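Fill in residues.
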């Protein structure tokens, strides 16, 4: 199976990538904590993704913790030359699986070295700083110090490119005043449209936007309009939701995650869905109805 006919790609810094990638988070156990339910299946998904043409994978050493990075190394190392591994720092896991901030200089340096070691790399392609200010979504607060630490590690040659995640426009501007930012990872989908203007502004500056929860998050997107468009184009509602994102803006890169090879191919097939203009208009209305 190939999806090379996905709409034209984008770049993460100096690395060209196709717009449909893969997110490894779901390969860890329930709650992104502990080992996978089926280790062999997790390895198979990673190998199938690369065989299908995926050239960027999103991961983090706090998924598991350590689980997804160890799986990626076991499944794919030595890595194909065109594979871009994107990781993130700024959090850690408590003994009970809690997501805890880890912003200090020491914690960030340790996290970068942990990612390097477990992925078996000398340099990380892209490192996202994930802001955590006590809320699930973005909240204001300076990210200058942690981004400066990553910029220092970049100058040392341990990081090629830097991105930010779970951030506000003010925080993105603050980060861009410190170092080049190649991508922003925020919550965005058909019904959650807070970043509409931000996406367009980033695209004008050549910066990738990578939505997390592209299919709704903890509760899947549900809409009669989405169902109707899916029936019309002969696809699943979730494939249509991904196809809409690809049409929404050229700088959107997708990293849908799954622990199933069959579901992986279903997600990748979204890149071949042609959404007519009237279908796009109908889907755009979902965000307005949801207040996004």
């Amino acid at each position: 199976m190939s999806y090379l006919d996905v709409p034209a790609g984008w770049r993460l810094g100096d690395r060209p990538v196709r717009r449909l990638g893969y997110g490894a988070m779901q390969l860890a156990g329930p709650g992104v904590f502990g080992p996978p339910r089926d280790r062999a299946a997790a390895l198979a998904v990673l190998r199938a993704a690369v065989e299908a043409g995926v050239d960027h994978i999103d991961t983090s050493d706090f998924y598991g913790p350590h689980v997804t990075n160890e799986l990626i190394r076991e499944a794919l190392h030595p890595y194909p030359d065109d594979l871009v591994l994107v990781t993130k720092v700024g959090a850690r896991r408590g003994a009970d699986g809690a997501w805890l901030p880890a912003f200090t200089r020491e914690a960030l340096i340790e996290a970068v070295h942990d990612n390097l070691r477990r992925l078996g790399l000398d340099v990380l392609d892209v490192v996202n700083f994930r802001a955590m200010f006590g809320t699930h979504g973005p909240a204001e607060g300076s990210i200058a110090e942690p981004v400066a630490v990553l910029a220092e590690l970049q100058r040392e040659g341990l990081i090629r490119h830097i991105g930010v995640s779970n951030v506000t426009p003010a925080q993105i501007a603050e980060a861009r005043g410190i170092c080049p930012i190649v991508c922003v990872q925020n919550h965005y989908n058909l019904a959650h449209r807070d970043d509409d203007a931000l996406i367009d502004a980033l695209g004008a500056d050549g910066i990738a936007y990578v939505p997390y929860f592209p299919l709704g998050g903890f509760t899947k997107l549900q809409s009669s309009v989405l169902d109707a468009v899916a029936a019309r184009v002969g696809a699943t509602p979730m494939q249509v939701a991904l196809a809409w994102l690809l049409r929404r803006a050229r700088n959107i890169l997708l990293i849908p995650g799954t622990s199933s090879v069959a579901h992986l191919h279903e997600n990748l097939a979204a890149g071949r869905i042609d959404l007519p203009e009237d279908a796009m208009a109908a889907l755009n209305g979902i965000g307005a109805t949801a207040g996004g």
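The two ends are 35 Å apart (CA to CA).
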